[in-house]
Amino acid sequence: QKAEWAKLVNEPTVSKDGQHVELVANIGTPEDIKGVLENGGEGVGLYRTEFLYMGRTQLPTEEEQFDAYKTVLERMEGKPVVVRTLDIGGDKELPYLDLPKEMNPFLGFRAIRLCLEMQDMFRTQLRALLRASTFGNLKIMFPMIATLGEFRQAKAILLEEKAKLKAEGIAVSETIEIGIMVEIPSTAVMADIFAKEVDFFSIGTNDLIQYTMAADRMNERVSYLYQPYNPAILRLVKMVIDAAHKEGKWAGMCGEMAGDEVAIPILLGLGLDEFSMSASSILQARSQLLNLSKAEMSSIIEQVLNMTTAEEVERLIKEIEVKEV
Ligand code: PEP
Ligand code: MG
Which atom of ligand 1 is nearest to the CA of 50? Predict the structure, then answer.
């Protein structure tokens, strides 16, 4: 099976009935690019930049960040690279920021909330990204967006830094897409409004599931509630994809669910444009997608969304898959 998959490294991902989707990778450091290319990744769908900030005693400088972003963009040779701005907080701490302990870190001062407040740190990252933007196909993504106001504020800061750099005579790409992670239910529900202003969505199911089900993604005792196939989650995912398409934008997914064998047929049926997963899952996902029909999967979506439990959904998808092979 591994040998079969290896043949797919340079193949596009096209369903049996001709629907093209993009299979891209989640990375944490520039060193991960090797694995992306070896596994036939068509781009990077999520670069988790927090690793640049972790395991050290002070903030990374603009130069350090510029080097990392430039390396990733160059090594991807013009393929899309979605870089997520700093998503610290929750399970990821930065001791040197010396932030007060919180009762509910996952509901607290993290990610874009922290960046909009600690603006010097945020602006340094944005400058590094903007300077690196001419070395490849950069897309910038803000994490944990809960309101349109947060997105507008983050985008305004980005555009301010861009204008400053240009005034300094530094080249900046004019084609950078600016998108958001959809990982908070309020944003999924308001996706139609967001879609008018963002260039793309990437659905972060790791957090979207925990916030929708009110079940900590790290807590084993409530892990039975962590249900990717719950119709509640699938309905939110559908809202986001439909909202994007209505405005001519694209929708991807960068949570673990994007590489999940049971979820993939549903996501194809829902019209997801981009699947971002760990590099080691890409070839398996490609081989699965080549054998699926988009039209067939679309035709069962209504039935799936009207099911009552996650188990029912899982059973139906597994039955269909057995019939396929
Ligand atoms: C997510 O929440 O789905 C996601 C991709 O981000 P992280 O796992 O880094 O929170
Ligand atoms: Mg997340």
Answer: 9
